[in-house]
Structures are given as structure tokens and as C-alpha cells.
Known about the structure:
Blueprint: E1 2-7, H1 11-26, H2 28-31, E2 38-40, H3 44-54, E3 65-74, E4 84-90, H4 92-95, H5 104-107, H6 115-128, E5 131-150, H7 153-168, H8 170-178, E6 185-186, E7 192-200, E8 207-226
Parallel strand pairs: 2-3
Antiparallel strand pairs: 1-8, 3-5, 4-5, 5-8, 6-8, 7-8
Amino acid sequence: xxxxxxxxxxxxxxxxxxxxxxxxxxxxxxxxxxxxxxxxxxxxxxxxxxxxxxxxxxxxxxxxxxxxxxxxxxxxxxxxxxxxxxxxxxxxxxxxxxxxxxxxxxxxxxxxxxxxxxxxxxxxxxxxxxxxxxxxxxxxxxxxxxxxxxxxxxxxxxxxxxxxxxxxxxxxxxxxxxxxxxxxxxxxxxxxxxxxxxxxxxxxxxxxxxxxxxxxxxxxxxxxxxxxxxxxxxxxxxxxxxxxxxxxxxxxxxxxxxxxxxxxxxxx
Length: 268
């Protein structure tokens, strides 16, 4: 049986949370008492456009807004040919949780780690003593945009300055520590901004905008567990091709072809 263990990182959500925490610590809500600063990845212009079509009015003020989005997701240029692949062996101590705690595998916080999947992996380990797999560590680079939109031009400028200081200062330090396991790195030389000369009057209100962009590197992981592998002396590409729904006795490359033609691989 094949199990995919995915460990991703949605960087724009991480940055939204960090800006929200920063605003609370620095005192933005108390200082700007007449405003609620919305930090989001939902662009307010989408809501304004929908309201203009339906004739509805928003139930709450959408501005000032700080909009975090991913402009691009790519491979770091200097790492274009680097693939970090490693062998994995899961033992009972890796999958069995101490009383009241989490097992080391659960602590990895893989995506969609359901109780059914976890129990199936534990059962396989209990029956065989260990199971084997392959881990791919994938280096990615995001180009992040932070837009600031407000009806008050001075407020827009002050929010821009607060965010610029954070991006170039403690956001870099804190996220590199929090996501050290992901190899997070924010590059100061990629930080670009435009404080002025952005305006929008398309929705019947006068809005002033600014933006900051930067690049950050990080690592995501995909581990493939194959309970049919019986020993550790395997080639890292030797996994039954369940990705294409194939099943059989012949091992084949998980992302390529193979000798197994019979379909009907099991679902994790």
C-alpha cells in the first residue's frame, strides 16, 4: 500500500498571521482607534466589484486593507538542478504516541493526516516491524506582494512604513527561526516598494495604495511510504507506480513508466 505524506507551507498565510501579531504588539488597533485594519489574502477589490454588480453595500468597512498574495512560485535559480532525496525507515517508536502526546510522525504535522491513514501506517509497522519510503525535499521560492489600500492617504503612508520596517526587520528574523525546519530565508536585497502614485476611483470611493514585494526561499516535503518494500537495500526510485493507478508485483518509477499494466491501485 502507498501512503503520501505531504508537508507544505502556504507562505502568504504565514505572513498574514505574522503581520496581524505584529500589529497587535506594536499597538496599531489602539493607535488608529477609528479604523479596523484588515490583514487578508482576499482582495477587497473583488468584493467591491461583486457589490457593484449586485448593488449591495458591504456590511463592514473593507479599508484600510493590507493584502498579502503570492505573485509567483518558482525554483530558486541557483538550485535548478538540485534534488534532495533521502531514504526513510519508520519504526514503532516513530509512529506510536506516548500517552497523552504525539508520535514523532504526528509531530511532523503532515497535511491530511487522518486517523484512518495514521492507523493504517501503524498497523503496517506493527505487522512488519518497520516500513520504508522515500522523502523528497523540494526547494521553492515565492515572490510575495503586500498591498496597502486606504481612503486616507496619510494612514496609507504610515501603514506602509510600519510594514516596511517589519519586513526588513523582525519578520525576517522571526520567520527564519519559526520555520528553520523549512529552511525559510527572506532576502533583504529583493525587497522592493512603492509608497506613492497608486490610486483607484473605479468603485465610487477614492482609494490610495502602496505595495511591497520580496522573495523568500523555503523547503516543502513529500514522503512516499510503500509498505511492500521489504528491505532497506533499495534504489530510491523503486516504488510501485500507484500514482497512475497501477498495481502489480514489478516495481516501477513513481513518476515514470513501468512494467505493471494492471490498473486499480489502492487509495491511501
